[in-house]
Amino acid sequence: MSGDINKTLTGNGGKVPLYKIVLTGGPCGGKTTALERVSSYLRERGFEVMTCPEAYTMLITNGFSFDNNCGNAKDLQFKVQHSVMDLMISVEDSFERVLRAKCRPGVLLCDRGVMDGSAYISQEEWDEFILSRNMNNVELREGRYNAVFHLVTAAEGAENYYTLSNNIARTETIDEAREVDCNCRNAWAGHSHLRVFDNSVDFETKMQRLVKATSKLVGLPSEAKKETTKFLLKKIPNIEDFPSDVKYHIFNVEKFFLLVNNDSDESENSYVRKRALKNSAGASFGYTNIRETKEGQMIELKRIITEREYNEYLKFRDPSRGVIKQMRISFVWETQSFNIHTYIEPVEGICILHCQSDPSEEIRVPPFIEVEKKLTNSPDDVRKFGSVNISQHSRYK
């Protein structure tokens, strides 16, 4: 039935998927190579692909430079921020219109995204800036992009390869590059699909991991059951125990499972999700369909939806399942992206740490988090801690 729902909501044209992916990170992290590698990979598999150039670099390469004798430096900085964001939004939206007009599955690869501007000014200045534009962080961070892939600067773990020679807009020393990289990670902390690719492996493996993550995002078949490593926690973490340098966001999440057609040999689940930043304005909405083929391949499709679409989907809610209500804490620690899911309804108190990673990556659990055990795909763990089964609250024992 999920296909009928999509047709009802969007019509034939709206069924064609389009994914917007941000590639970000500190200087000399591999973004240029990554854009070329991912573009070629997706085009070879039938996707229409366009890449959005980095807006600030467009200013620099076309004659702009900061002048220390310009007068009001803060005023200039804010005008540059406005110009960069205007340019970025205009290019992204224009490219998206062109891709949608092709009526084929498309991917828009963005060399940085709108939240990257916050990495170069203070939190107070950023809050003042977006308030002046009548915007909020949730809509900017999650409402525009399906995923954010952060490529850690070579200055962090691959110092011998750090160079300034291949980008005239790059001026940072190694220490400055590390600081920018950390600020960029924090800028996107809170996005539900933030992946950090560090330099614990060689550059080629780093690119392979990126391509694999992109493949999974756009729904290409994957043998891997899950790329999210999960740990059952002993208790709900105390925010006061977080180190002062760990930036976190707290969200209230509601998830509704939808009616699906399970007459075939394939297992399928669909749900819609509302994610709102606690004590702040703005919310993001998403639709997810997960299908396991009879050959055992997992195909997961996600897309950003509007609030109107979200409300329309709720008409097709599966009445046999309870609403999933959670408090989520999103944070980045030591180049790893984490989310803590604490269930409120239909059960209370289950607390699970999620780390989005490649299965071959070593997961370093933050020392301020108390883990009871690592969760697996065993029938017992799936029955007790899988959201699909938790939603069937009458069966949850």
Description:
The chain is of the alpha/beta class. It has 2 domains: 18-217, Rossmann fold (3-Layer(aba) Sandwich); 228-395, Hypothetical Protein Pfu-838710-001 (Beta Barrel), CATH 2.40.320. The protein contains 11 helices and 14 strands. It has helices at residues 2-14, 31-43, 55-60, 73-101, 123-132, 137-141, 174-188, 203-217, 307-313, 379-385, 387-391; strands at 18-24, 48-52, 106-111, 147-151, 194-197, 228-233, 248-257, 267-277, 283-292, 298-305, 324-333, 336-345, 351-356, 371-374. It has a 9-stranded antiparallel beta sheet with strand order 10-9-8-7-11-12-13-6-14. It has a 5-stranded parallel beta sheet with strand order 2-3-1-4-5, with helices on both faces. Strand 11 (324-333) and strand 12 (336-345) form a beta hairpin. Helix 2 packs across helix 8 (203-217). The longest helix has 29 residues, at 73-101. Mean pLDDT is 85; it is low at 1-14.
List key phrases describing it:
Hypothetical Protein Pfu-838710-001, 2 domains, alpha/beta, 31% helix, 397 residues, disordered N terminus, Rossmann fold, 5-stranded parallel sheet
Q: In short, what is this structure?
A:
This protein has 11 helices and 14 strands.
Query: Could you say what the CATH topology of the largest domain is called?
Result: Rossmann fold
Tell me the strand percentage band. Answer: 25-35%
**Shape annotation:** globular
Unreliable residue stretches:
1-14
Number of domains: 2
> What name goes with the CATH superfamily of the largest domain?
P-loop containing nucleotide triphosphate hydrolases
List the helices and strands and how they pair.
Layout: H1 2-14, E1 18-24, H2 31-43, E2 48-52, H3 55-60, H4 73-101, E3 106-111, H5 123-132, H6 137-141, E4 147-151, H7 174-188, E5 194-197, H8 203-217, E6 228-233, E7 248-257, E8 267-277, E9 283-292, E10 298-305, H9 307-313, E11 324-333, E12 336-345, E13 351-356, E14 371-374, H10 379-385, H11 387-391
Parallel strand pairs: 1-3, 1-4, 2-3, 4-5
Antiparallel strand pairs: 6-13, 6-14, 7-8, 7-11, 8-9, 9-10, 11-12, 12-13
Helix pairs in contact: 2-8
